[in-house]
Write a structure and sequence with these properties.
The protein has six helices and four strands; from the N terminus they run E-H-E-H-E-H-E-H-H-H. The protein is α/β, with parallel strands linked by helices.
Amino acid sequence: MDIVLIKRTATALPHGVEARLEAVGRAALAAEGMPDHAEVAVTLVDDEEIRVLNRDYRGKDAPTDVLSFPLWEPEEVADIRAHPERYPERPLLVGDVVISVETAARQAEEYGHGLERELAYLCVHGMLHLLGYDHEDEAARAAMRAREEAILTELGLVR
């Protein structure tokens, strides 16, 4: 599994956070049963860039913390998990996750944990959206939150 990390923000990151995010992304893909040749791009941006993306793709002219751009429908992701041999292309592009470092920093302060933990959470959250999770209703929200926390706990990133 490969995570392509792209940094397009001037906001300083804690030492080692980029490697940690790559590990978090790989762990999320593995935990969800994606094949070894899956690849996701994770792009770190500022509030202005994510605001433009949020406006253009979701019709919301405001910054947000994370956006996900899946390349597969949820039923296709399920088929990839069950039958990876049907998807031989290398790498198997899954989608893109875009995270605002500025929003993550504000949220980290609000929630009382470090920026690394918040970025890791947003990375996992975005990855799960790529793999078909959503939080449109309470049951889906609870299922997604449980998976997020399980993956982060496995990596030692507890609240």
